[in-house]
User: Fold this.
Amino acid sequence: MAPSGPPPAAKAKAKGDKKDKKPVKKAPEDNLEDKIPKVEKPDREVFEEKVGKKNDRIEGLQKELAVLAKKIGEKSHGKDEHFAKKTELRQQLDEQSAKMDELQARKEALQKAIGDRVSEGKQLREAANKMKREIGYTDAQQIDERIATIEYTLWTSSLTLKEEKKYLAEVQELKRTRPKVAHYHKMEEKVQNFDTGGNVKEQIAAINEEMAFHREKKKEVQAKYRELVEERQSQMGNMTELFEEREKINKLIGEQIKERNDLRNDFRQAERDFNAYLAEVRKVRQERAQEQRAERDREWEAERKKRAVEKLEDNPYVSDIALVEQTLLWCNSMLPKEEVKAAEKKATVHTNTAKEEVLLKKEDREEEYFFAPTKSKKKGKNKGGDKAEEKGSGAIKHNMETFHLFSQLKLDAPLLTSDIPATIDKLGEMMEGFKDKVKAWEAKRDAARERIAQGLDPFEDKKKDDEDEDDKGGDDDDDVHDPIPESLSSNKNFEKKNKKVSKEGGKRGVEIEGAADMGGLQFFCTSVEEPAGDVDWLYESLRAMNAKSDPSEEERKGGSGHVGKMLLSINETETCAMVSYVPKNFHGQIKADSWLKDVLGLMGAPASSFVSGNANTAKALIKTDSDKGLFPLKLKDSGISLSIDYLKKRGLFPDKDDEDDDEMVFGDDDFPE
Assistant:
């Protein structure tokens, strides 16, 4: 019966871990909470009692102030009539002032109009003089005479080609100048007939007369106003004592309010001191809890290392070697008996440890295979003919088990007995390779044992090898991306928001990686929702897309760092954020900052929208501007399409018109939100 698989690997413990040592208890340390100066909790009842007394005193003074105000009110009778007259006079003053302001504005407008007309006349004269200097002629007849002279010279004189071209060019220029002469005459006529406004001075003089009239009216009203105020002051009489008493009471009320506020401030300060004491106590307790947690982590790490050390004795190549040995046995069993007897018997070198088991020799046990040899006789009518054909051809009949055996070893199954010697040679080479791997594994195991004996971490070399492999795998994200800005990390909701942004970005990174693998894309343009128009959060989404993907995770994230990107995110009413990313191997063709700046120009965004950037990454933030037609919803669609067109012109994005119908081109719509 065929065995179900290779023999199980033996487990062994490290020599140094014979007995589990009990943790040594540390001596109790001083309680750090006792070293903090204790602060008593403030007594709120005492505080409220003192404040109540101050409130009673303030209320009594306010009653005295009310009685005094009543006395002052009784003495100041006729106050309503006085203020009504005063208001009426004040309105009359305002009316006169408004009329004078209106006249002054008209006067200034007329003066400005005079200046504008004079300036306009000067400009017309300068334009006419400039045209006169440019054309050089003031009459069309002069131009016709010059053209006739040149044409006569061309007809009658023997000229060189250069001179002839020169005359022809002059004729063309004169013909173009002829309409300008008529335009010059029109400009000159307009200058002659220009009116600078001769009656404006008369209008200004009339306005001055009106302003003088209203000024006198205003003086009369002001005189009445002064008389009314003086009459009221004489009617009030001597109320100085009442006013002084009122001022004294107001001062006492202010002092009592200040003392009440001081009581409140002292109590609040005492509360702050007590809260600070509680915060220090909590900090000490947290530090103690962190130390205890770190101690537990160290114990867990020691246990993990202990278990890993126990696995040092497990030979990782036992099953592979057993598989090769069983395949060799099968191949030898399929050889003709004459070749088996002639073959040299080679001593088998076993690489097992003392605690591992080896199968017995063929002579000492019943033969075992991973499968049953297929040497059964074929049933049928023509038995003799088939046997003769098999012996003559040496064909080997396989079943699914034998094919599976050779597929595990990544070898082609021999179809003829003549192919078996070559297969045996390949199996021998594989056996030698596994022996070399076993030797390397034994060397690492011995090195780990030696480090354990020295009290060092047995897995430090493995960690260094893993770090070297990570360095060879590509550029570190920190070399390409900026650190997280403090404006985000200091936000109290940073963890919650960062989780949402990273989840969306990581998922989109996997999708982009898949699209790039299927469609051969080098660049990708898309939009995301979670950053909500914030350029810093959009940059964190890019970081999540470019993060190295861990295949062992249940849900893969990121993995698209080799694909260039243009990302957009909008707040529908306020902003449109954009971030570009270009891998280093494309810097010879395109750079992130220049890509983003060119796209911003095509979108009609102002230059101030560009925030920062370099060859690797760049940021931009476009604010809503209704005057310029910048709206986030429109910017999102145009930004993606313009970015793709920009890449197409540089041959960095597939063009549907140039590709076959079966070619796949991915864009933002291939991944619905």
User: Anything to note?
Assistant: The chain is about 60% helix and 5% strand.
